[in-house]
Amino acid sequence: MSAARRPDCAVIGAGPAGLGAALAAREAGLKDVMLIERDVELGGILPQCIHDGFGSIVFDEVLTGPQYAQRYIDRIEAADIDVRLNTMVLEMAPDRRITAVNAREGVIELEPRSIVLAMGCRERTRHQVMIPGYRPAGVICAGAAQRDINIEGIMPGRSVVILGSGDIGLIMARRFTLEGAEVEGVYEIMANPGGLSRNVVQCLHDYDIPLHLSHTVTFIHGRKRVEAVTVAQVDGGLKPIGETERLVPCDSLVLSVGLIPENELSLQAGVELDPVTAGPVVDESMHTSVDGIFACGNVVGVFDLVDWVTRTAETAGRGAAEYVLGKKKIRTPIRVNPGRNVRLVVPQLVRNLGREVDFYFRVQRPEREVRANVLAGGEQVFSRKARMVRPPEMIHAQISASGAAGKAKDITLEVVPHEKET
Amino acid sequence: MRTETSSLPARAGLVIVGGGVIGCSIAREATRYTPDVVVLEKESDVSCGTSKANNAEVHSGIGEDAGTLKQKLNVRGNQMYDEFVRGLGVEVKRHGMLIVVTQRVIPEETAGGMSEEEREEILTRKIPQGIVAYGEKAGIKGLRVLTRDEVFRMEPNVTREAVAGVFDGTYGLISPYKLTIALAEHAVINGARVFTDTAVTGFRVEDGGVKAVITDRGEIETSLVVNAAGVFADEVADMAGAGGFIIHPRKGATLLFDRQVTAEYVKSSVAEFRLPGQKTTQSKGGGAMPTDEGNLQLGPTAVETGDKYDTSISAEEIEEIFERFHYLLPDFPRDALISAFSGIRAPTLEEDFVIGASEAVLGFVNVAGIQSPGLASAPAIAEMVIGILHELGMPGEPRPDFDAVRPKPARFSQLSNAERNALIKEDPRWGHVICRCETVTEMEVLNAIHAVIPATNMDAVKRRTRTGMGRCQGGFCHNRVAAILAGELGIPITAVTKDGEGSPIFLGTAKDFLRGEGA
Ligand SMILES: Cc1cc2nc3c(=O)[nH]c(=O)nc-3n(C[C@H](O)[C@H](O)[C@H](O)COP(=O)(O)OP(=O)(O)OC[C@H]3O[C@@H](n4cnc5c(N)ncnc54)[C@H](O)[C@@H]3O)c2cc1C
Ligand SMILES: Cc1cc2nc3c(=O)[nH]c(=O)nc-3n(C[C@H](O)[C@H](O)[C@H](O)COP(=O)(O)OP(=O)(O)OC[C@H]3O[C@@H](n4cnc5c(N)ncnc54)[C@H](O)[C@@H]3O)c2cc1C
What we know:
The complex is a heterodimer of chains A (422) and B (519). Chain A has 422 residues and is α/β, with parallel strands linked by helices. Chain A has three domains: 196 residues, FAD/NAD(P)-binding domain; 133 residues, 3-Layer(bba) Sandwich (FAD/NAD(P)-binding domain), CATH 3.50.50; 91 residues, Immunoglobulin-like. In chain A, 19% of the residues lie in helices and 32% in strands. Chain A is built from seven helices and 29 strands. In chain A, helix 3 packs parallel to helix 4. The radius of gyration of chain A is 22 Å and the shape is globular. In chain A, 53% of the residues are buried. In chain B, the strands form six sheets. A six-stranded mixed sheet of chain B has the order 8-2-1-12-20-19, sandwiched between helices. In chain B, strands 13, 15, 16, 17 and 18 form a five-stranded antiparallel sheet that branches. Helix content of chain B is 29%, strand content 19%. At the A-B interface, strand 7, strand 8, helix 3 and strand 12 of A face helix 8, strand 18, helix 10, helix 13 and strand 23 of B. Strand 12 of chain A pairs antiparallel with strand 23 of chain B, so a sheet runs across the interface. The complex binds flavin-adenine dinucleotide (2 copies). One flavin-adenine dinucleotide binds next to helix 1, strand 3, strand 6, helix 3 and helix 4 of chain A.
């Protein structure tokens, strides 16, 4: 067997996370950076996101998904980065050995000096949300439908019911309508929409597509192809209310019921996962629990905006470079505690409060007129007012603590009602 | 051979109705004596009926009533299995079954005048020993009584209410659809012909004997017919006037779990011992069992359904399964549920197998009422039917030219890196991964489409390669597999189906839609 190659850094996945990380690692001084992508092109999920709404923070512009991706692809092509398309990473070991495969070179074995995980996420399927009924053709996840329509030009449905009001579901309601299909309605089990408010307005209201909150699909009818679904209102415990059941004829059920970070490789390598984010536990440089393995983007947790994905990617790429170049001091980490009305936070650990640290967090429940605070050793190091916070949105906070707070032994993020300021 | 496009032969020595595990077992066994065998299957692939939706267990026979044909053929079938699959490229894994005796067999309140010692004596000795004696009487070997500690050592996840157990090491697991496909292919390699998308609609019977089989695609003259039509066997028998039994479809739902979470949850099939009056449903066996791929199954239910096509699952059934096994496996990881399926059992009113030559119609053999343990009994059922066919005039001399081997399709995910590289050198499509969750390559999909029994739709490819069976349930690979199918079959992608006519994956191209066209 030939000796394994030892690149300075191997980035797994070339969505916005992988693209950003590879560039940052290269720019921070690593010479041999490999970017491994199983798809035929760079960009991850972005080439299929032909709607606009990307880049408002990073570029202060409103771009489509392909446009956003292209800005990074151009830079990747100009940089000296070893890009492997059509290459699937099959295995990753705790000692960072990677096995990948492609049709041209066969099985590729690597022993990278650092790794950045950027595998993105996958969609939750019908069985993870337990929809009873038959198993006909015509039940499809929204992201998969998006790919069919926007990349392949084929229509998975003509009369469509959408379950779940996450952003992908909302965007696909509009897409199906624009392509000449009929969307009967979007059904959401929770009392609030799952996606961004702007998408509810721009994708549903503008096209007169009804949004049925506190509703779910209770049965899929049709032995060969979907013929109808039964929908019902749910009670406070999210249980369907029998009397409200209604049959909705349709030929497709499109599911937008959540995303799950794709961490099978991470688990193989023994990377510790956070049960709440379903992604690796990371520190402020996006270093995971396994030495030399970093992670960024949706594999760490589901981000609503690509801009934050890019930010985490740049941090991870720089972190990998520092690690390989021996600049990184490993200090004992302190835990970041989710405080009042905070459901999850990335990073979960901080090693050096002396530098700028970016936090991303989500709330547990919608709340009006609040303040988001970061406390280090009891001292407030960040505070910002918000008129409204909602669970689908990632809140960003950048802090740099100095003095006493810089030596704090604990950090807490909280969202609290703000007192009327006089 | 593209089975569904080639035309039916004018005549055949033996026609088998039904391409399930039973029809295909009989076909393969028959080709040991004659190549002149035809299998007719109304669906788009073999193994589309009950043989694709069951629990994959090679039972031992311990769960069957003494004296039934079911028990006799189950015990014999189990013993024949290793030999039966030799050369087929499909394995039986003898993983064993643990029957757990629990406190609630004799609830304390009903223990009446019994002393605690007496109760314990019954639970930990008399019952397990009774189970062993019952099994041994039926001819099952190697049954073993386990103490409570041994039960936990073997299966740490069973309830602390366990008091004793019986281990039956003869229990096995086999992929029922891989087995059925392999048997059909092995039969074809030895001269048989399998026609899918071909429904039998009647028979020509003259002078008290069968003369021809009538299908929706033409007639085949024959004087020997085997009716292995599963839940439809009563209707098929009636078409010939060879009936007299009724099949009442009984649905069984099973839940399937993510193997990443549940791989080691149980090592053997685990079931709880219940006294006859304590059974909650008519399903014996039942419990938690692994599949040949390491996913865990929980179930099945048993619900009489008037509809032979009712493979739906209700919310109540899902809940019922969780509830039913909650006592046996209290900390079950519910959240790892990835799939659920239903199969239809084919019981007669007598609840036993109906196997024999019709007295009304010469040359017509019924193989009906093949409910569970039909899969486990398949080798013995085929053996019995071959005996009957010999009596009815099928050639009796084994063929010297019988080919004992059906080549096993290579699975990329199970190969070493050296083997993988060798294949990729041969054909680079071995290096192109199509299904990310199950690591299935383009070449495996192509091989399935061009196999001896060709896969012509998404489900058929899935049964042969596992595309779409993993965590994302086809979200990633469905359009890739559909594109390969379209290319190889020379059809537009909009004609690709999930499982045959009426199940298109796509309803038109985006262009069709904008022009107001499409299906
Ligand atoms: C429908 C939809 C609409 C969206 N709309 C917006 C919007 O309007 N505005 C906005 O800012 N954001 C939006 N987003 C979010 C944004 O697109 C994502 O957050 C971002 O794409 C995530 O980037 P990523 O690189 O982490 O993951 P992905 O883009 O998913 O990239 C992961 C890559 O890793 C590859 N990969 C995975 N495993 C392997 C392996 N084993 N070997 C090799 N390669 C592998 C995959 O093929 C993929 O290319 C939207 C997302 C979706 C799905
Ligand atoms: C939930 C469940 C779990 C089970 N678990 C087990 C188990 O663990 N172990 C075990 O041993 N057994 C088990 N069984 C039983 C086992 O699955 C069956 O006994 C076995 O699959 C029956 O095979 P078959 O070939 O008779 O029927 P099928 O597989 O149904 O085959 C009959 C075929 O005939 C075809 N057909 C019907 N009518 C016509 C026609 N007119 N023309 C042409 N073709 C026709 C059908 O399309 C079908 O493909 C289980 C059953 C169920 C429902």
